[in-house]
Amino acid sequence: MTSTYDALVIGSGPNGLSAAIALARAGHRVKVFECYDFPGGGARSAELTQPGFVHDVCSSIHPMAVCSPFFNSLPLEDFGLEWIYPESCVAHPLDDGSAAVMYPSLEKTVAGLGEDGKAYHAVFEPLVRDSEKLFPYLLGPPGIPGLSLWFGLARFGLRVLPSANRFAQRKFKSEATRALFAGNAAHSFLPLDRRISTSAIGIMLMLAGHVKGWPFPKGGAGKIAEALVRYFESLGGEIECSRKINLLDELPPADVVFFDTRPADMAGIAGDRLPASYRNKLERFRHGPGVFKIDYALSEPVPWTAENCRGAGTVHAGGTLEEIASAELAPWEGKHSEKPFVLTAQHSLFDPSRTPETKHTFWAYCHVPVGSTLDMTEAIENQIERFAPGFRDCVLDRHTMNCVDFECMNPNLFSGDIVGGVADWKQLLSRPTFRLKPHSTPNPRIFICSASTPPGGGVHGMGGFNAVSAWQARQ
Asked: Residue 50 sits in a domain of what CATH number?
């Protein structure tokens, strides 16, 4: 006899697992289906280079995880999750041997920015002060916030209207501070002359750093998924891996189905259970540039010229604002930058459990045109060598992944798009389509909860929590 469930979840990334947990905590019988051979989505770790070297396969640094209202409501530490906080959130080296650094402490950051310290403080101090009110709204679904939020949101909103280029040029005088802001804004995967989204994402990441830091899990990003799975199973939940769902008819009966998938995949699986007009909108959902990533096994730490890069969990190797803007425009024009903006993380400086004694891991990627298969190893290493001469001499082994490799690993990472779709202002307001409750669909028994829904990419689980909240509001 076929088992019945109250709810099913297709996909076991952090959002799918969060939806499953929210449902199970409400007393529902829940089962999760995962097409890969183990759960976790982008929160995954593996020995990609040599035995004993633990690398993060996709996501790596997790400021939004520790800012997530939903994750903060879960006892994940009781299920093996331990956060590590580097001395500084991010360092941005320049050619003169210096580096701009963002610390968890706003005051320490301001002190290191010289003539821009006062302007930086004016931007972030009010946001830090209002952060407890801001984050639940900024990570929640679109809607009308409480009246107490309006003043804080106005402060945030006025800052994000200009593009990242214009914001940095207007607010800051030094090349270093402008570059520091540009590196954070480049996490948007957008050209830095785009209004609203580029500034918003840059400010939000920096705000998260000053409120919670930019931590990562001890032992690898996979520890996030492990903790979520263990907690879900402790609530009586079930997970079936290596099970690819092609049609809803293949699933056991349930009251509701949640999709932690990209929009087009939900349209294909749901079929005529969703109106053709809605499926067409899902299939037109826009995906942006992809990534080329390298994981390194190193004989010693990266020899950054700037000493203060050696205490940072994240280092942005991209040069000036103008250079980063050029590098981030290239993928949108179908080009590969010769001087890409390279995002790097150096976990083993703070987490020796990831490597054999005295050895190190290093994680690096750059943005490339959607679907690219070009090997960007030389371009990435040239940028690292630019700020860390002798880096190549430290390399014991390397493992590369292009856009196609990412999609093969996880179908949600369509053509290498690791953030769940273009995050410009239009699609921020219509993820995956324009609806007052975007996690809902025209079918009251089908919901979507992936990174292609608000609040977007990142490991925070809020897409899953928001989708379940939307369903519960209908009950």
From this structure: 3.50.50.60
Report which residue type is found at 418.
Answer: I
Torsion (CA) 421, 430, 140, 316 in degrees, nearest 10 = 30
Average pLDDT over residues 230-253: 96
- Strand pairing partners for 99? 93
Sign, CA torsion 14/20/21/26: positive
Task: Reduce the secondary structure of 319-380 to three states and give it as a string.
Answer: CCHHHHHHHHHHHHHCCCCCCCCEEEECHHHCCHHHCCCCCEEEEEEEEECCCCCCCCHHHH
CB atoms within 10 A of CB 295: 24
pLDDT-derived band of residue 3, with 50, 70 and 90 as boundaries? low
pLDDT at 300 over 90: yes
CA-CA distance, 218 to 347, in Å (whole number)? 9
- Of 300, 294, 312, 293, which Cα lies nearest the Cα of 355? 300
Cα→Cα distances 155→124, 152, 161, 451, 473, Å:
10, 5, 11, 26, 30
391-400, pLDDT tens digit by residue? 999 999 999 9
pTM over 0.90: yes
Which residue is associated with the tokens 């996709």?
58
Alpha helices in 236-334 (DSSP H): 263-270, 276-283, 321-329
Would 280 be classed as within a structural domain?
Answer: yes
Backbone φ and ψ for 49, nearest 5 degrees, come out as -110, -75
User: Any idea what the Cα angle at residue 341 is, between residues 411 and 135, rounded to 5°?
Assistant: 65
Structural domain for 468, as ranges: 5-82+217-287+420-474
- For position 159, what pLDDT does the model report? 75
The C-alpha torsion from 73 through 74 and 76 to 82, rounded to 10°, is: 0
Sign of torsion, CA 176 177 179 184?
positive
Arithmetic mean of pLDDT, 146-152: 52
Q: Residue 278: pLDDT band by 50, 70, 90 thresholds?
A: very high
Residue 433: inside a domain, yes or no?
A: yes
User: Is residue 354 situated within a structural domain?
Assistant: no
Number of domains in the chain: 1
Residue 63 resides in a domain: yes
8 Å CB contact between 134 and 149: yes
pLDDT digits (tens, 9 = 90+) for 258-271: 999 999 999 999 99
Instruction: Classify the C-alpha dihedral 387-393-399-404 as positive or negative.
Output: positive
Residue 123: DSSP 8-state: H
Going by the DSSP 8-state scheme, the letter that residue 460 receives in this structure is S
User: Residue 428 has what pLDDT?
Assistant: 75
